[in-house]
Amino acid sequence: MSFIYWLGHLFFREIARGFFDYRAIGIDNIQIKGPVIIVSNHVSFMDPPLVGIGFDEALYFLAKKSLFDHPIAGWIFRNWQAIPVDQDKPDPGSLKAMVRFLRAGKKVIIFPEGNRSEDGHLQRAEPGIGLVIAKAGVPVIPARVFGAFEALPRHQSLPHPHPVTVVYGRPWHVDLSTYKETGKELYRKLADEAMERIGELQA
Q1: What is the pTM of this model?
Q2: Structural domain tally of the chain?
Q3: Any idea what the CATH number is for the domain that residue 155 is in?
Q4: Which residues pair with 37 in a beta bridge?
Q5: 3-state SS string over 122-166?
Q6: Are 109 and 49 a contacting pair, CB within 8 Å?
Q7: Quick one: 192 exposed, middle or buried, by C-beta within 10 A (0-12, 13-18, 19+)?
Q8: Any idea which residues carry the catalytic annotation?
Q9: pLDDT tens digit string along 94-115?
Q10: Helix axes 128-136, 92-103, angle to 10 degrees
Q11: Which of 159, 168, 162 is closest to 59 using CA atoms?
């Protein structure tokens, strides 16, 4: 964990505890060494740090390419292990980068829905997460954030105090031999199953 990442980790952890009465459930489920995909619902701009502060090591995640345009913000996001992605023109290169990091033994957070929810409810996953799951061949941990939508919804610029809970589910060890689907159909199946596992989590 780099110094800049550590500072951000510490900052968000203290803010979450003091401002949002942050709770984490299922911490035992994330005590896994080696590469892991963490799949989470996406309801707020705060989701990456809220999910990430449960871990004691650095995680990689995708972030909008436009966030890197500002020199200072770009420098911060790169030091926070963010990988730029163009949401208007989906780039398979960002997904391949995630697979490379996983094969190198890293942990990554992916938000299968792609965009933040407009109403706080779960959306259908984009098939790209299925591709990453299939190609990486590593355990998948579902996570679900509760309360972040109320604290900072998509069209609100500043957060306000509201209890936030992050629930981590049991690792999902994907056995591709049990699936009859192949190619894009397999990716869609895995993406849908990832969202189902997220949806099963309760605070």
Answers
A1: 0.91
A2: 1
A3: 3.40.1130.10
A4: 108, 140
A5: CCCCCCHHHHHHHHHCCCEEEEEEECHHHHCCCCCCCCCCCCCEE
A6: no
A7: middle
A8: 42
A9: 888 889 999 999 999 999 998 8
A10: 30
A11: 168
